[in-house]
Amino acid sequence: MPPVNRIADYAEDMTAWRRWMHQHPELEFDCHETAAFVVERLKEFGIAEIHEGIATSGVVAIIEGQGDGPTIGLRADMDALPMQETTGLDYASKVAGKMHACGHDGHTTMLLGAAKYLAETRNFKGRVALIFQPAEEGGGGAGVMVEEGIMERFDIGEVYALHNNPGVAFGQFETTPGPIMAAVDTFTIHIDGVGGHGAYPHDTCDPVVATLGICNAIQTIVSRNHKSLDDLVVSVTQIHTGSADNIIPDTSYINGTVRTFDPVVQDMVERRLNEIVEGQAASYGVTARLDYDRNYPATINDAQKAAFAADVARDIAGNEAVNDKAGREMGAEDFSYMLQSRPGAYLFLGQGEGAGLHNPNYNFNDDVAPIGASFFAKLVETAQPL
To answer: Which of 103, 143, 120 has the alpha carbon at shortest distance from 348?
Structure first.
């Protein structure tokens, strides 16, 4: 699985870039220090057209090829997670409660490596738009960048992204035509009862019992209200109530996530949640309110672009290291907004064994960065050959 030789020469620099970013994680839209680091590198590469402050701290840089042609977009996310790192690495996060636990430092590094190579060689026609995006983990930074007009402003015709994949063989690419990542919705249920002494429950309207009834009923949405062949996840992830063993509280709070691919299924889940909350509240004599928020839509690859990207990956990794029918995941990704705006594809790149994503012991595998950078570079050269 040979990376481009010239990009392999950057391996030491790429490791240094990535580890600096790993030590300086930033959250959501507040990626100003990371963006400044990216801009400094881009200027070192001789890239003159750099646009800053998009979606607060996002960056779009343009590399001109040789001769007229279309513009291809390459995206990397920059934000970290609100987690305390436990790796013990000598380049571990220096910021308490913040950590690059999803490898966005590696994604940004791969795009920087491709940028350095493409700026040196310019062995393509048209232009490349390098998209460094904040707020993938929360806030939908990709959607904000699209709303702020990057596709039209920079005349981007197609767009691609990579995400590392721990637990998958090192250097193996995976993608699929059509849906690859789920839509994600969030529900919150506020329950109001009448509290009192735990020894005298008959004098209360117990929100704890109502909470348990609602949570149990929610489980029937998947088991009894949807066709088993339709992908659906409904998970209760938080319950908060009470303060002592002898006090029945006044209120309770339920929070959870819904993952779907079909808007019809999405509509059904929202309707059933409303019915369950209303009916269970009435049966327990409490009042309850459902807040249902539709967040990132499903990430849907253009079938032709996914097949094209898989072919490019084969040039880098070989036939055996590319799975172009990997199926879809129930995780979510705000790159979905960019794919709603322009055709393109989202791919995973295996980085071998290690802690999984969003784990406090996670670490991006620096050895995979030249492979991802080579994929981005060859994607451009293949899509827009001289």
So the answer is: 103
CB 65 within 8 Å of CB 124: yes
List, in order, residues 6 or more apart from 263 with CB less than 8 Å away.
Answer: none
What's the DSSP call for residue 56? T
Q: For the chain, which domains are there?
A: 5-180+298-383 (3.40.630.10), 183-294 (3.30.70.360)
Query: Any idea what DSSP says for residue 319?
Result: G
* DSSP H or E stretch at residue 280: helix 263-284
Q: pTM of this prediction? A: 0.93
pLDDT one-digit tens code per residue, 9-43 = 999 999 999 999 999 999 999 999 999 999 999 99
User: How far is residue 253's CA from residue 249's CA, in Å, rounded to a whole number?
Assistant: 11
Do 50 and 134 meet the contact criterion of CB atoms below 8 Å apart?
A: no
User: Looking only at Cα atoms, what is the longest distance across the chain?
Assistant: 82
CA distance 375 to 381: 10
Q: Return d(Cα 93, Cα 165) in angstroms, integer.
A: 21
Rounded CA separation 240/257 (Å): 16
In 3-state terms, what secondary structure has residue 370?
helix
> Are β-strands 173-174 and 322-323 bridged in parallel, bridged antiparallel, or unpaired?
parallel
Q: Can you give the pLDDT at residue 34? A: 98
Give the integer Cα–Cα distance in Å for 72 and 155: 9
User: DSSP string spanning 29-50?
Assistant: T--HHHHHHHHHHHHHTT--EE
Separation between Cα atoms, residue 100 and residue 105, nearest integer Å: 7
- At residue 9, the 3 state secondary structure works out as coil
Token code pair at residue 59 = 């960056």
Residue range 247-276, pLDDT digits in tens: 999 999 999 999 999 999 999 999 999 999
Going by their DSSP bridges, the two strands 247-248 and 196-197 should be labelled as: antiparallel
**Torsion angle of the four alpha carbons 27, 113, 92, 331, in this order, in degrees rounded to the nearest 10:** 50
Interatomic CA distance for residues 9 and 16, integer angstroms: 13
